[in-house]
Amino acid sequence: MEMVFPVTISEREPPFGYVRATFTASGLSSAVRARLAVMALTCLLLGVGLFATDWLLVRRERRAAAPEESSFCIDEASRHVIIRGHALELPPKQFTLLACLAAEPGRVFGDRELLESVWPESDYADSKDVKQCVYLLRRSLKCAVDRPEHVVRNIKGHGYRLDVSSV
To answer: What predicted TM-score, i.e. pTM, was given to this entire model?
Structure first.
């Protein structure tokens, strides 16, 4: 019986050598053959254990070295919104409102500023339209965020702000 084990330091590098174990059992008693079989099985299990340990260490290194993915991304050119890996299809007004708030996360935007950004051409839009659009935006965010009211926050008497830390 012959067994060959590669000797490696990590999965990324090729093996720098091999260990070859050869067992011949001709002319030996059955007790010795059984012991040799146990030794061969032990070597095999040791090799598998070392491979599994190496594989887990390499996986952990990759996870630690991988850049953290952004949980919130708005691409104004393609009009895509990705939150926690969920791609959202937002209607134009909701997208414009979210993009306006995301331009300066944490800053409070008043109704007047949001009206000028989201409805620049309308003489008839008012704070009720902003409130309705925020409501619909939060409803759209619900599929990606547990508590959308914590993402698009209402600052009573002042306006709205985007809280990216809640994403």
So the answer is: 0.58
